[in-house]
Every structure is written in C-alpha cells, then in structure tokens.
Design brief:
Helix 5 packs antiparallel against helix 6. The chain is mostly helical and 251 residues long. The protein is built from 9 helices and no strands. The radius of gyration is 19 Å and the shape is globular. The protein has a single domain, classed as Four Helix Bundle (Hemerythrin (Met), subunit A). Belongs to the CDP-alcohol phosphatidyltransferase class-I family. One of its GO terms (cellular component) is membrane. This is CDP-alcohol phosphatidyltransferase family protein.
Length: 251
C-alpha cells in the first residue's frame, strides 16, 4: 500500500484533504454524541487546515494544550462571571477539537509515532484531573457560593474522571495486547446512535460547554454535580462490564 503523503500534493484543495480525512477516521464504538458528531468533525476541519499550514501533529497537540490550560488557569485565577464562563468554555472546546485534530493529522501524514501518542495521552491525563482541581481552587478563592460540602464535588469528579480516563486507556491497551478488537478500529456496522446519546453526560465535550453557566454559580454547580453523579454511575456500571470482558481475553 502506498503511504500517505506528509506534504500537501500539488493541486490538492482543502476539500480534497477533508475527503481523504473522512476515510481515515477511527472507530466510533462507545463514543458519546458530542465527541462523535461535533468534535470529530471540528477536528477534521482543523486537521485539514493544519496539514495545509505544514504543522506537525505534535505542534497541534501543543496548541491544543495551550488552549486547554489557558481555560483551566482562568478557572483558578479569575472570579466567576458570564464573561469568564464563555472564555473558559471556548478555550476548553477549541482545545478539545484540536485534541481530535492531532490524531487525524497524524493519520493523514501516514501514521503517528509512539512519542506523539505518548504526548497526546499525557496532556489528556493532565487536563482530566487539573480541570476539576482548578475549579475547586476558584470556588475556594472567590466563594461564589457558601463554602462547605460543595467543595467535595470537584474532588469527587476529579477522582471519577481520572479513573475513567485510565480505565478507558487500559482497556484499549489490553484489547490490543490480546488480539481483541479495540474501540478505535473501524467496523462494518454503524455504531449505535442511541448509545452515543445515552452516554452523553460522560462526554468531556459537554462538560466544556457547561462552564458557560459560571455566571450563575448555583445553576452551574447543580448541573456540574449532576454530570458528576451520572459519570460516577456510568463508571461503576462500565467497570463491571470491563472486568467481565477482560476475564474473557485469552491468557
């Protein structure tokens, strides 16, 4: 098979690149609705633009991290307001779209490297925990609501998010190691749309936009706590399913 070009071919338009990207997507099994239908498409456009700009996947990962951690820093350093909410949500959402773009760009250029994949996952691991901890710092510093048990919610969400991220990565590694089909592999059948909608509350992309509500701290905290509870419930049920699945893998 002829390897994909690392540079834009003569005469290739942005539309041509987008067409090639549409055939180089990962599988969508188990992907929540926002990540599957919105973020991946936004990432596809950004990947095509990055390809024409001559950027490398690691450069896109770096830009993604800059956007994401700008939003996270704002949570800890600036008092809650509607303006802050829009800024945080925008930074996180753009960072998430770029997080999708770096992998798509790597596939477009002929495949990523282990170092690039390591960098991508390390950034993901850092943002998964630091987002909730930055919110905790902001709630403690600026006291938009009365201090008390409410400060335990970001701590609990941090633990749940970190375990969910680690479990997802570990599952894929064990499936690949034992020759089972991974979620990233494309299959002949179309992944369930209903399932993508059911697991939407666990979607990081949805969480990004919830921060728009920071201008109404009480409303934000109720919605945020609701996502924390639903994500924790999903993790508990998924962990049982994952354990049974891992038990069926060959030794």
């Amino acid at each position: 098979m002829r390897p994909a070009p690392r540079r834009v071919a003569a005469g290739e338009t942005l539309r041509d690149t987008l067409g090639r990207l549409s055939t180089a997507q990962k599988g969508a099994a188990g992907a929540p609705a926002y990540s599957r239908f919105l973020n991946r498409r936004a990432g596809r456009l950004l990947a095509a633009l990055a390809f024409h700009a001559g950027l490398t996947p690691n450069a896109v990962t770096g830009i993604s991290a800059l956007c994401t951690f700008t939003g996270i820093a704002l949570l800890a350093l600036v008092a809650p307001s509607w303006g802050l909410g829009v800024a945080v949500a925008g930074c996180l959402a753009v960072g998430y779209a770029l997080d999708s773009a770096d992998g798509q760009l790597a596939r477009l250029r002929g495949g990523g490297s282990p170092a690039g994949e390591w960098l991508d996952h390390m950034v993901d691991a850092l943002k998964t925990s630091s987002l909730h901890l930055a919110l905790l710092v902001g709630l403690y510093r600026f006291q938009p609501v009365e201090r008390g048990p409410v400060l335990l919610v970001p701590l609990a969400f941090c633990v749940v998010a970190a375990v969910l991220f680690f479990g997802t990565m570990l599952n894929e590694a064990l499936r690949a190691q034992h020759g089972a089909t991974t979620r990233a592999q494309r299959t002949a059948g179309r992944p369930s749309v209903v399932r993508s909608l059911v697991v939407l509350p666990t979607d990081y992309g949805l969480l990004c936009w919830v921060f728009v509500l920071l201008g109404a701290p009480v409303v934000f905290l109720w919605v945020y706590a609701g996502l924390a509870v639903l994500t924790a419930g999903y993790l508990a049920l998924a962990a049982l399913s994952w354990f049974r699945e891992m038990g069926r893998l060959p030794r």
